[in-house]
Design brief:
Layout (H helix, E strand, L loop, with lengths): L7 H4 L9 H7 L3 H30 L4 H6 L5 H4 L6 H5 L9 H21 L9 H28 L6 H30 L1 H11 L1 H9 L8 H5 L6 H31 L6 H30 L14 H10 L1 H10 L3 H10 L2 H4 L5 H6 L10 H29 L2 H23 L3 H10 L1 H6 L5 H31 L5 H15 L4 H11 L1 H36 L1
Helix pairs in contact: 3-8, 3-9, 3-10, 3-11, 7-8, 7-10, 7-11, 8-25, 9-10, 9-20, 9-24, 13-14, 13-15, 14-16, 14-25, 17-27, 20-21, 20-24, 21-24, 21-27, 26-27
Length: 559
């Protein structure tokens, strides 16, 4: 790939993140910060209620596990949202005076409210779940679309006064708070008020998201001329690459729709997890990696916009499609050059140390073989769903503090190291907890937990979860800040959606092999492998830090 001069609009991603607690003080006088907190809450609440609390209601209503499995596919919208992310930037404002971003937010939030109210009015215990399934699917689609718009808004409104690092942390604090309320809080409410009332309350709480939208400033859209100036390569090459990308995306959309139709019409329903593990890499390869390679080809061939001698420019409609779909990847590949390999490696490996063993968490906590811990559902509800979420929120806060004090890349590297190391806490539990037990005896932590009537086995698990979730929250804050800074403001919708989809889907790879490993060698071996995978992320973080430092020096020499 050819090396191109970095435009001023892209230099911001290469600048060191603003540091100092003075930034925090100044930012909390800005309405953008409050809006970000409320929008984060608006993103987290439907996630918790549609993908967790709803399943609990169905189980409580006596709905069969097979039927509940039919609804598992609604989670695919979040994993593959990059497929419709260009529409966020392609369409004009739906509500003229509100602007493009806020119009989309209001539309998505109203649809989510309608979906939650429809679910509240359903009666899953009677066996009629068609209306409920449709509402859940519509709500999940609207929630994923809302995520695209919120991520784009965060990238576009960030500046030196309210840096993207801080906005990313505030977003996650709002998201996790909503997850706690919509998860554990909703279960408590359901015991007292019933499931229908709980979902009505959830719909009402979405009003906080609407409030966030109303107080959020509308970012200035990038001029069409500025986007057009980013076109490089001959029109013919651009259109050939666009055609290939559209075909790949059409195939990916067909695969998703076919799975959804099959899930609703075949008994037993296929597993969304198996679909993601089997077809997810192929869909990402065809819909992300192939277009990225074509974008790299366009950059390598070079050439500024405008028809090559004797070659006509493409029709305006096709140029608009190119600007919305392929131009974000071309811009990214042109800006990163061969550094894209490092960035891709970092994105693919950063959260895999946690994501790869996530589905095995509850079997590990509640099972009785292979080093599993044998805890009850009530104990896990306390340790993981309540205490664990609070520890994640604490980790996010620490991550946000670190971003302001030690900077983005130092925080990213530290988060990767902590995430890898805390897998060893789980390994120790699987081996009988000799290290954790000794530490808790020496530190008298057993006595502290005993004051709350928590026994020694559960206390050991809660300590390990505290370490794991604080590290995960810290790493998550740094990772979202890094991805946000990596995205160009002109193309944030597509670029960030692609980044997050890659990070989500990579965790599905290798889970089948890990399951077999657990059967033969127990859980401890799995946690050792997860820790080593985390070391790979640490290496990529160090390489990316070196790359960014060298790029900044080059820019300083040029200026």
């Amino acid at each position: 790939m050819t090396d191109t001069k970095t435009p001023a609009s892209e230099v911001a991603a290469l600048q060191p993140s603003p540091k100092g607690l003075g930034v925090l003080k100044a930012a909390f006088h800005e309405r953008r910060t409050l809006a970000m907190l409320l929008l984060g809450f608006s993103a987290g609440l439907p996630f918790a209620m549609l993908f967790g609390t709803l399943n609990a209601w169905l189980s409580d209503a006596g709905v069969s596990v097979a039927t509940i499995g039919i609804l598992s596919w609604v989670g695919l919208f979040g994993a593959f949202k990059f497929l419709w992310s260009p529409s966020v930037g392609l369409t004009p404002p739906i509500i003229g005076k509100m602007g493009r971003r806020r119009s989309w937010l209001i539309l998505c939030q109203v649809v989510v409210v309608g979906a939650l109210l429809t679910i509240a009015l359903s009666h899953p215990g009677t066996g009629a779940i068609a209306l409920l399934a449709g509402a859940a699917a519509l709500g999940a689609f609207a929630s994923a679309t809302q995520d695209i718009v919120i991520d784009t808004w965060r990238i576009e409104v960030a500046d030196e006064r309210v840096p993207v690092d801080l906005l990313s942390t505030v977003y996650q604090l709002g998201f996790r708070t909503a997850a706690l309320i919509g998860g554990a809080g909703a279960l408590v409410l359901a015991d007292t008020l019933g499931w229908s009332t709980t979902f009505v309350i959830g719909a009402g709480l979405m009003g906080l998201g609407l409030l966030g939208t109303l107080i959020a400033p509308e970012p200035k859209p990038a001029p069409r001329q500025a986007i057009a100036r980013e076109r490089i390569g001959s029109p013919r090459l651009r259109m050939m690459a666009l055609a290939a990308t559209l075909l790949a995306w059409a195939w990916a959309a067909f695969m998703l729709i076919r799975f959804m139709v099959t899930a609703l019409s075949v008994t037993p329903a296929p597993s969304a997890g198996e679909f993601t593990a089997t077809w997810g890499p192929w869909i990402v390869g065809g819909a992300v990696i192939l277009p990225a390679a074509l974008a790299g080809l366009i950059v390598w061939r070079g050439g500024k916009t405008g028809p090559v001698q004797g070659e006509r420019d493409a029709p305006p409609f096709l140029n608009t499609l190119y600007d919305a779909i392929l131009a974000p990847l071309v811009e990214l590949m042109g800006r990163l050059g061969w550094g894209a390999i490092i960035v891709l490696g970092l994105i693919l490996t950063y959260r895999i140390t946690d994501g790869v063993w996530g589905p095995f968490a509850f079997p590990f906590y509640m099972g009785d073989t292979g080093g599993a811990l044998g805890h009850t559902k009530t104990e896990i509800a306390l340790a993981s769903k309540t205490f664990g979420v609070v520890m994640t929120i604490l980790g996010i806060g620490l991550g946000g503090w670190a971003l302001l004090v030690i900077g983005r890349m130092a925080s990213l590297l530290l988060g990767a190291a902590l995430s890898a190391a805390t897998n060893l806490l789980m390994m120790d539990l699987a081996l009988g907890a000799p290290v954790i037990h000794g530490f808790m005896q020496i530190s008298s932590l057993y006595k502290l937990f005993g004051l709350f009537h928590v026994g020694e086995p559960l206390a050991r698990l809660m300590l390990a979860i505290a370490g794991e979730n604080i590290a995960g929250g810290f790493a998550g804050a740094a990772f979202v800040a890094y991805l946000s800074a990596l995205s160009n403001k002109m193309f944030g919708a597509v670029q960030f959606a692609v980044f997050t989809s890659l990070a989500l889907l990579i965790g599905t790879l290798g889970r089948g092999a890990l399951g077999e490993l657990i059967e033969h060698q127990g859980y401890a071996a799995m946690f050792v492998i997860a820790a080593w995978l985390g070391v790979i992320a640490v290496v990529f973080c160090a390489m990316e830090w070196v790359r960014l430092t060298a790029e900044r020096r080059r820019l300083n020499l040029e200026t």
